Every structure is written in structure tokens, then in C-alpha cells.
């Protein structure tokens, strides 16, 4: 007779609290990494709840790893936090907002060493910004995150990204965090006023079109009630007269910026002459194009899975569509674009009309 003995897995054999015990940081890091690898499985939500119940020692472990420069442990702890965020965002936000946002401050304090300084590699930076992007949607987080994150996020966008990170993805998520902070929160708009010159430089100088558009929306949201802020000499110098005038002319309501590509065209010195000089990475759920063929309007939708690449030139927006191992190009002449919108769910929508 053969007897099969079920051996409990790491996550069920010991609680997450026990996994975090021990003075050997490398051993603890390997245990956390093993748990993280199982979070993608069928019982991932159950494991995430166990991790959430012990998030305080998890953050303490991350802080200790940052202090001694232990990259694998930092990556493992921040990856565990991201899985908890994805599994149950409301539960994590409730936990982080207890005790006067003490735990949120602990998470936010990781931003500078992990993301802004690039000391712990791209994986930890992406995971941390992903978590912050979700956490900053909570009203409780908005109240304190303006003080905690406004300055480092603004400086990060203005200064650039260290070579060890993915600049496209990190900049997009950093701008998304700031957009979360200012939406429906007048006090955070006031806080970010001091950082408008840095944000304006991100609008005018960001090498990625997607980030430039998002940063333009951020500046618009901050200044739409106080248009005089656009006249600040430092902001004016960073934006340039054409783009500043376009931002000031936008309607004072909460709709997303319309006709964003036209807005960028008005500031021609930010758009290089060469057709493929401006390379961007778009994180899109879809591109929607509305075309007119003769008198008949045709609705055409193309789905993009994950990330793709696009080029912005003086005459066209070219989006690469990987399909069946090949790469098809969707070329959109700028003069046919009626409007372009960015949605909060990272959907990039382009509406096309017949050429004038």
C-alpha cells in the first residue's frame, strides 16, 4: 500500500508572524519571497489576509532591510505589500488609516530610498508606486499624503529617473499618485502650488508623451481655480507662453483635458521634428478610433494588452500593435484627431474625425 502524506505549505504551516521572526534578515527575506510566490495562486487572497494581519512587522522588516541595503529583502517585502493591496484594497486602506495614518507614513517613507534614489532596483520601485497609487485614492490618505508625498513626488518628476529604473512606468505612476491627491482635495492643491515649477518642467520636458499629457492635466487641476498661479515667473518660464495660454483657456470643470495632442502641438519646441524621435510607452486598456469614410462614420476599436510603444512626431501619432508575433502600426495623422483623452483607469482614447 502506498500512503500519501500531505505536507502543509509554508503559508499554512506557520503564520506570517512566525515567518517574520528571526534575527537573520536573509532567512526572513527568503521566507517572505516564498509566500509572495504563492500569492498568485488560488489561495492568494487567504494568504494576503494573513499578511495584512501582520503588516506592521512586515513594514518594520522592510525598514530594517532599507537601513542595511539588503535589496532582496526590500523587494520581497514590498512585493508582499503590493499583493495585499491588489487582493483587498479597502481592507489595507482601513488598516493603514488607523492610528492617525501612522502605517501610511511608514509606507510613504520608503518612497525616497526605493524610488527617488533608485537604491533597490526597478522591481521594488514599481511595486511600491503601484501600492501608493491605489492607497492615495482613499480620503484618509489624501489628508496626510499631501505633506508626506507632494514634495518627493514632485522632485522625482522634475529631476528624472535613475538608470536602474523603468522611467516610463515609474513616471506614469508618480503622476497618477499626485492626480489622486489633488482630485477633490483643495488643501493638497494648495500644498502642490509650491511645487508647480517642478511639475511644469515635467510637462515641458518629460521625454514620454503619456507622462507629459498627465502632467499637463495635473498642472491644470492645480491651477484651474487659481489661474493666476500660472503667471508665477518660475512656472511661466518652465511652461512657455503657448502651453501656459492653452492651460489657462481650459474650462474650469472636472472633465479630463480635451484635445491634448493639439495642446502639445501649440508648444512646438517640445515636439521634435524627426518622425520617431519621441518614443513613449503607453499602458493602455484600449485605443478607440472614430473614423469617417465618405459620409459613413465607422467605429473602430483596437485592444492593446499591457504596454505598447508609440511615437509622436510633428505629423502623426504612431502606435505599435503587437499581434501574432508581428508588430502592426496604427498611424494617426495629427490633423485628423478630434480629441484625445486619458481616463483614470489608464485607458487612452483617441477620437478621429475627417480632415478639415
Automatic annotation (TrEMBL):
Which InterPro entries does this entry report, sorted A to Z? ARM-like (IPR011989), ARM-type_fold (IPR016024), DUF8079 (IPR058392)
Residues making up the signal peptide according to the UniProt record: none
- This protein is called what? MMS19 nucleotide excision repair protein
